[in-house]
Amino acid sequence: MNYSITIDKFEGPLDLLLHLIKQNDIDIFDINIAEITEQYLDYIKAMTELNLDISSEYLVMAADLTLIKSRELLPNEEEEEENLKEELIDRLVEYQKYKEVSETFKDLEIMRSKSFSKNPSLIEEFRSEDIQISDDITLEDLLKALEKFNEKKALEKPLNTVVTRKEYSVYERGVEIINTLKIKKKVKFEDLFEVYNRDYIVVTFLSILDLAKKGNLLIKQDHNLDTIMLMAKGVES
């Protein structure tokens, strides 16, 4: 029988055997040892003729296949030949499982390479001496107030909602807050979060910090755990 030999890069003799099995559309549990051995040796011969380095494990497998093939021809060695063949099939099945899993991990690696992550930021990075907040209130207090607000709104959230996308900017939301303060002079921190969705809450919170940093509003809390109030610049309680 004539074979067209193409030298590929294999990860070992089991990888080469699986390639031959797949190439010939053979059931891994119904291997024709004589045929597979002949094709395997043709690969080894082709690699030798191309002066390619042949790992010793390839030669060991060639010897094992030749042994199993020879035992098939000896009637008194049938039981031992079956044991050797079953052992080879078990090794192939186990290797095939690892190969399939490795392909899955490779796909996951490719997918992950298309994602970019940001390292966690410390809250201290966002501290600024320019933000006008009374001495008895900290940025942590604001974050806790925002957390409580989110918990409260989560309980009020209806079972069926229709979500629509709307883009918000810190500047535009800041203008809205300033206009509100011009009319009301003072508002509760949580009252500025009229819309309950992530984008609106984040932009509103950043707008409050930005306005405080620029000195356009004051953030005040009379006592610990009291309501946090936002006031227009120049308004004192």
Descriptive account of the structure:
Helices cover 55% and strands 5% of the residues. The protein is mainly alpha-helical. The chain has two domains: 13-113, no CATH class; 123-232, Arc Repressor Mutant, subunit A (Orthogonal Bundle). Strands 1-3-2 form a three-stranded antiparallel β-sheet. α3 (56-72) packs antiparallel against α4 (78-113). The radius of gyration is 36 Å and the shape is rod-shaped. Mean pLDDT is 76; it is low at 1-7.
Give a quick precis of the structure.
The chain is mostly helical and 237 residues long. It folds into 2 domains: 13-113, no CATH class; 123-232, Arc Repressor Mutant, subunit A (Orthogonal Bundle). It has helices spanning 13-23, 33-49, 56-72, 78-113, 139-156, 170-184, 198-213; strands at residues 186-188, 217-220, 229-232.
Can you tell me the CATH class of the largest domain? Mainly Alpha
What's the total helix number?
7
Tell me the β content.
Answer: under 5%
The helix fraction, in percent, is 40-55%
Largest sheet: 3 strands, antiparallel
CATH evolutionary superfamily of the largest domain = Structural maintenance of chromosome 1. Chain E
- What coarse outline follows from CA principal-axis ratios? rod-shaped
Low-confidence stretches: 1-7
CATH-assigned fold name of the largest domain: Arc Repressor Mutant, subunit A
Order of helices and strands: HHHHHHEHEE
Number of individual domains: 2
Q: Specify Rg, calculated over alpha carbons.
A: 36 Å
Distance between the termini: 99 Å
Going by helix content, strand content and strand pairing, the class is: mainly alpha
Total count of strands = 3
CATH architecture of the largest domain, please? Answer: Orthogonal Bundle
